[in-house]
Design a protein that fits this description.
The protein is an alpha+beta fold. Helices cover 29% and strands 12% of the residues. The protein has one domain. Strands 1-2 form a two-stranded parallel sheet.
């Protein structure tokens, strides 16, 4: 069983928060982190101080129990884009 956090975007059509809630119930010491204004993945926030900081906290502590994830709540929405070109 994993001990890590499960991270899901609030607007994720592939893995909606309700599914994450069902999964995390079966993870020993699991924690669901729902990131507002996000969908599936970390597009637009790769390398952000928030994402890097939370990952660093998890690695340092070896646990998801006391992660400070408040920065995720303050991240602005990612712009909607129809094509990359």
């Amino acid at each position: 069983m994993t001990r890590g956090p499960a991270r899901i975007g609030e607007n994720d059509p592939a893995t909606p928060p309700e599914n994450g809630e069902r999964v995390v119930r079966h993870l020993k010491r699991g924690r669901l982190i729902v990131v507002p204004h996000r969908a599936h993945g970390v597009v637009g926030v790769e390398g952000s101080p928030c994402v890097v900081g939370v990952i660093g906290q998890f690695i340092e502590a070896g646990s998801a129990e006391r992660l400070d994830t408040g920065c995720g709540e303050r991240m602005p929405p990612v712009p909607f884009v129809l094509s990359a070109g």
